[in-house]
Amino acid sequence: MSEQRDTFLYIKSVVVFSAVVETGSFRKASELLSISPPVVSEYIGQLEEYLGVPLFYRSTRKVTLTEYGHRFHNCSNSIASIAQRAFSDFKSKDTIPKGKLTITYPAALASQKLTNLIALFNRTYPQIELDLVIDNQPKNMIADGIDLAIRVGWLQDSNLKAKKITKVERVICANPDYLKNIADLKHPKELSQLNWIKTELLTKQVQLTNIITGENASFTVEKGIRIRGANLFKQFLVAGFGLALGPKFLFQEDIDNGSLIHILPEWQAPSVGMYFVWVDNRVKNPLIDYFIELTEKHKTAIF
User: Fold this and answer.
1) For residue 55, with 0-12 CB atoms within 10 Å meaning exposed, 13-18 middle and 19 or more buried, which class applies?
2) What is the pLDDT along the chain (303 residues), one digit of tens a residue?
3) Cα-flanking dihedrals φ and ψ of residue 80, to 5°?
4) Which of 67, 95, 114, 240 is deepest in the core (most CB within 10 A)?
């Protein structure tokens, strides 16, 4: 009886859900049903909380179905005959995580260590279907249906929520061949006249701090080439094009084997954050937390 009461209690929410899917927006659904947009939002919020999954990606312009939204829509097309089965499926007491999780991260982070972590996640949660989007261009998480992103740098999108993974130390490096005809570098002011491989994280004015004396110094990046693909920028660096400022974890193996030289190691650039990012839905995809939790356990071995 309790399951039947729950089902009938949320029938109105299912009707509103179907109207939003049909019209493509909360406002148009409110007009179709002759109720106010806040009431539509409240019904959808109640439904998502009851199911424990996000049904829509929301933005100020439009709403699109999440993977769970598509699943629920398929189940609830015929409300009278299968509404109770739809609720029962999503409110199942089965504790085994399952469903689809779409993750994006830049190619520069596509290291063997991160790949090993993803393989471990797949072995730990075999019923979670992973969809990986490895791209240096930040994706529109709502339009592209992205559940979780890993991003490095400064966050600007107010529609997103974030959790800091770690602080990323940045270092200046160059290929030994490039440095052969350059006098020994002793101070940051000498760096302005050298060739630079410029990325989106490299500002024109770079501030450094001497970790021994506490002295602050800055230099201006003038010459060089701008690279918009982070995976390519390391290739240009190793090829000896010039200097680059980038994540230490990205360069560490090359520094250790001598293919790159850490320039002015006593001078440190400001670190940047690495973050998990997801859409600020009322209810987020519960599978996100499983990936975040596993990464938290192993992040010191990865980054």
Assistant:
1) buried
2) 455 556 666 778 888 898 899 898 999 999 988 999 999 999 999 899 988 999 999 877 778 999 999 999 887 766 645 555 665 666 655 578 889 999 999 877 877 888 999 999 999 999 999 999 988 777 888 888 899 999 887 776 667 889 999 998 999 999 999 999 898 999 999 999 899 998 877 888 999 999 999 999 999 998 998 887 656 788 899 899 999 998 898 899 899 999 999 999 999 999 989 999 998 877 778 899 999 999 999 888 776
3) -60, -35
4) 67
